[in-house]
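Pipeline run #58 for the internal structure catalog. This entry was flagged by the ingest filter as a single-chain record with no existing model, so it goes straight to prediction. Upstream metadata was stripped on purpose; only the residue string is passed forward. Reviewer on rotation: M.T. Logging verbosity set to normal.
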Amino acid sequence: MGEERLKALLAELHEELHQVGEIDADTRQVLAELNADIEQVASVSAAERARALESRFAAEHPVLQRIAREMADLLTKMGI
């Protein structure tokens, strides 16, 4: 169940990003790394990357922040 929810959250995050428009290269890189981590569902750094995205989105994109926070919390609960 956790892995399915992570993939759903990742899809939601990408959908919301399409509505936001352009994002900076650093954020795009963190997203790519998070995506790879979730696909592998074996990386300790996935939760850290999700938290990094949460911080980046905090001021301007509250929906994106919520999604990233939920992803980080779920990864942490899964022990990833």
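catalog note: Helices lie at 2-20, 25-40, 45-57, 62-77.
catalog note: The radius of gyration is 11 Å.
status: ready for reviewer M.T.
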